[in-house]
Write the structure tokens for this entry.
Amino acid sequence: MIELCHLSKSFDGKAILNDISISIPTGKKVTIIGPSGSGKSTILKLILCLIKPDSGKVLVDGVDMTLLGIADLYEIRKKIGLLFQSAALFDSMSVEENVGFSLFESDHSYSESQIQKKINDALELVEMTGFNTMYPAELSGGQQKRVALARAIITNPQYLLFDEPTTGLDPVLSTSIENLIVRISDELKTTAIVVTHQISTIMRTSDDIYYLHDGCLCDPETPKTITKSANPIIANFINGKLGK
Ligand SMILES: Nc1ncnc2c1ncn2[C@@H]1O[C@H](COP(=O)(O)OP(=O)(O)OP(=O)(O)O)[C@@H](O)[C@H]1O
Ligand SMILES: [Mg+2]
């Protein structure tokens, strides 16, 4: 379970998150939406403790991430897979070195051939079979994103954080990534937190949808309720995306 308790964060004196609280039970798929610059990526970075909050707690399975030293933080982060908004691949590494990075680097006791199989399975899931020896600069933006997704899921983490997983993908690939998120979450009981602007992703991958506005999270909606939201700010946002 991931819990954010009274979390606040300012940058350069400007409040971005203002006392937000949310509990995300294990196995849930939560989507965070909101205007550009509202602080969505900041929430994901706070969950991983890549940045520290000004106040409040980030609890992962009851452990407050904000109080941990580097070694303990590193242990807890193993439970969490992150797909950055930019694919953030290592330019000097091939696709398979990028995807297998955490397995090569850590103390997993996998043999070379087991790691190779895991890499190939992850690449197959994101429809990138055969790209093993190519380098990020040789890939399109969408292909880079899928490689980054393979890298995020290869260790079967308990929690997956996706920042704009489908942006820049064509509709067919977008649908396959959305289906993948739902499948991973349902089959492995992975908790997924998805930040997205894409309406198809909002509608397909969410149990609960939170709208971030003026530093606060609105009451959650579901794909069924959101198009008829009683909150005019959310209704405008969604209907604008639906072209209504
Ligand atoms: N490290 C930082 N230093 C200073 N300001 C920052 C930093 N990180 C984020 N911000 C600011 O915080 C605000 C929220 O940024 P964030 O990246 O979380 O937005 P977002 O909701 O993810 O937007 P987008 O939809 O465009 O990705 C922005 O105004 C941004 O400029
Ligand atoms: Mg962002």
About this structure: The two ends are 37 Å apart (CA to CA). The mean pLDDT is 91.
